[in-house]
Design goal:
The chain is built from 8 helices and 9 strands. With 261 residues, it is α/β, with parallel strands linked by helices. It has one domain: NAD(P)-binding Rossmann-like Domain (Rossmann fold). The strands form 2 sheets. It has a 7-stranded parallel beta sheet with strand order 3-2-1-4-5-6-7, sandwiched between helices. Strands 8-9 form a two-stranded antiparallel sheet. α3 runs parallel beside α4 (107-128) and α4 runs parallel beside α5. The longest helix has 22 residues, at 107-128. The structure holds NADPH dihydro-nicotinamide-adenine-dinucleotide phosphate (NDP) and 2-hydroxyethylsulfonic acid. The site of NADPH dihydro-nicotinamide-adenine-dinucleotide phosphate has 30 residues, from α1 and α6.
Length: 261
């Protein structure tokens, strides 16, 4: 995909794996500058090297914990030493912790999901917005989920925070109307990344079960979608995009080839 993204400044949270890492590589292949944040800096360094090989105008990494206002603000101060404007902000950092019912849920899992998926989007956006307000045509792209649109058993808090992400996206679009800054959400169904291993705390058998017998979305599918959204002409805003693998017709309706009924 050759676009108008060469030389643009693109910041991606949660760039150390999954969607974030693939998105970094995809924007790099368009010749963008990519600014990468996450907690695992060694992984970010690997992704940055791949980005340079792929043709990035520049690839820059710094530790970022979106669950901390201090870390987020330090990251933003560092970003301001690199560039005076941001063209694309991708709020991708997030994930689920546990799949317990409300009756069996654990405070630490609830709090971790709220901090990262909900407050993380707020903190990062507040810190980076000053670099976007005088930059019409820039884009804020948040990563939501099908879980923000449809509830499922064991998903109460994760569904809740992704639903909050959708409302943050809609509120922000209203607040920024007239500035030329575009605000959108890309909401995937299940995709094979480190997501399930994180959710099930390293239990590979449980994690594999999520994708069993299906052909799930890949990180590259989401990365391509984000490049497409960000490269629309400035008068076009992709507000909300739900993207699922073909096998997932709905959250409770998944075609699994290896399962015999
Ligand atoms: P991964 O687990 O592969 O990636 C999650 C990324 O988020 C990692 O880079 C991780 O980096 C980062 N992250 C987690 N916590 C923090 C934190 N406190 N501060 C900074 N970065 C953090 O999963 P995905 O790529 O699948 O997930 C990316 C996004 O997509 C998430 O928001 C997820 O909820 C969403 N999503 C995923 C779907 C799926 O099925 N995979 C479907 C729909 C949405 P590190 O640990 O190094 O900090
Ligand atoms: C991840 C997709 O269906 O596992 O956001 O919640 S799902």
């Amino acid at each position: 995909m050759k676009t108008n993204l060469a030389g643009k400044w693109v910041m991606i949270t949660g760039a150390s794996s999954g969607f974030g890492a693939a998105t970094a590589r995809a924007f790099a292949a368009e010749g963008s500058h990519v600014i990468l944040g996450a907690r695992r800096v060694d992984r970010l360094e690997q992704v940055a090297a791949e980005c340079r090989n792929a043709g990035a105008a520049g690839a820059y990494v710094h530790s970022l914990d979106v669950a901390s206002t201090k870390s987020t603000n330090l990251f933003a101060e560092w970003v301001k030493t690199l560039t005076t404007k941001m063209d694309v902000l991708i709020n991708n950092a997030g994930g689920a912790h546990g799949a317990e019912t409300v009756a069996n849920g654990k405070d630490e899992d609830w709090e971790a999901m709220i901090q990262v998926n909900f407050l993380g989007v707020m903190r990062v956006t507040r810190a980076i917005l000053p670099l976007m307000l005088n930059n019409p045509g820039s884009s804020i792209l948040n990563i939501g989920s099908i879980a923000g649109r449809v509830a499922y058993e064991g998903g109460s808090v994760y569904c809740g925070v992704k639903s909050a992400e959708l409302m943050i996206t809609r509120s922000l679009r209203l607040e920024l109307n007239g500035t030329g800054v575009r605000v959108g959400t890309v909401d995937p169904g299940f995709a094979e990344t480190e997501f399930a291993m994180v959710r099930f705390k390293g239990d590979k058998a449980k994690s594999d079960k999520v994708y069993e017998g299906t052909e799930p979305l890949t990180s590259e599918d989401i990365a391509e979608t984000l490049v497409w959204c960000a490269s629309r002409p400035p008068h076009v805003c992709i507000d909300e995009l739900l993207i699922k693998c073909t096998d997932q017709a709905a959250i409770h309706k998944v075609h699994r080839r290896s399962v015999t009924k």
